TrEMBL record:
<dbReference type="InterPro" id="IPR011333">
    <property type="entry name" value="SKP1/BTB/POZ_sf"/>
</dbReference>
<dbReference type="Pfam" id="PF00651">
    <property type="entry name" value="BTB"/>
</dbReference>
<protein>
    <recommendedName>
        <fullName>BTB domain-containing protein</fullName>
    </recommendedName>
</protein>
<feature type="domain" description="BTB">
    <location>
        <begin position="313"/>
        <end position="355"/>
    </location>
</feature>
<dbReference type="InterPro" id="IPR000210">
    <property type="entry name" value="BTB/POZ_dom"/>
</dbReference>
Amino acid sequence: MDYERKGVTITWQIENGVCIEDLHSPVIFLDVMDGTNWRLWVRRMSKKIISLTIERGAEDNGPKEFGLHYEFFVNELQCSYSTRKRMHTFRFLKGDKGNIVEGRRLQMDSSDSTTIRCKLWRLWGSISKSSHFFVRTRLTKESYIFRGKVEKFSDFSHYEKKTLKTVTPFMDEREITVNLSLFPLSASNSDTIMEIELTPMSHQADNFFDFQIFILDSSGNKSDIGKFENQFRVRRNVKFVLPNVSKEYIMENAKHYLTNDALSLRCEFTFWSVIEYENVERTEFEADSVSEVKQTDFSKAVELSKARDGIPCDTKLQTATETFPAHTNILSAQSPVFEAMFKTNMKETIQKCVR
């Protein structure tokens, strides 16, 4: 395979992480590849593994069969790890999906953006000019917080289950019940462990959600004991033990943790439900990597911003070590990526800062 051949690069930025079971990009029309249509797919397999593939449109105007060489790169913001898989070759009929590519050991922080890059070459023939498409998807992220209370905690006995709350944090009205139970630690240890169970009331989409729980002291403040946080799938029943705490410990420190013999716990959900925004922009620049594109744009922007000292700036460019004042009109003129960013109600526009 000649890597110097002209090809098409699709850079797909997903804001708020990859927390939906199956997420696809908007359709990308490739006139340089006989009018075929394509979209990228990403599936969250676990907290640190995603799978990727590309799909040809079922109703495009291209030939019956179209062959591609393609490869994926994954670069997460604030993470230097990048995974590159081998070149894949596939002959696509209309509506076909290509081979599944797994991205492993990714630091999937759900609060960050994920950038996926797919590079395509024709299997037969060539194209006259390389093209680049910048695709952006933003997921809706919301938080749901409640305080659960266990009345008459001193009477709470082994194997008893108390429902803290049944919550409906999702737009499609799916419910999750949060239960607290007590169990003996072991036959030889009389300490009583405290177990939380999250039970979904339906089994629809298998999206992910973040969950945190805290034991509150008698003043309503979060305490360090019993603190737990993790990410789970929506449709799976999960159980976990609250760390570093037992019923005996709570009773020994009742003045600090109990109010009128009631134990209070704070539960926090963060969930993702629908696509809030998506867009496709065709750009003219070429680069070997996403980081190279960003570095080029930053260098030009910083240089031009310094050349215009005295003119009020309306945004900032922030790197890991420095922050530079900048002008959105200059950035937009220098980079189609910035132009697409500032034309829409993206977080960079709202926060007036590009990180």
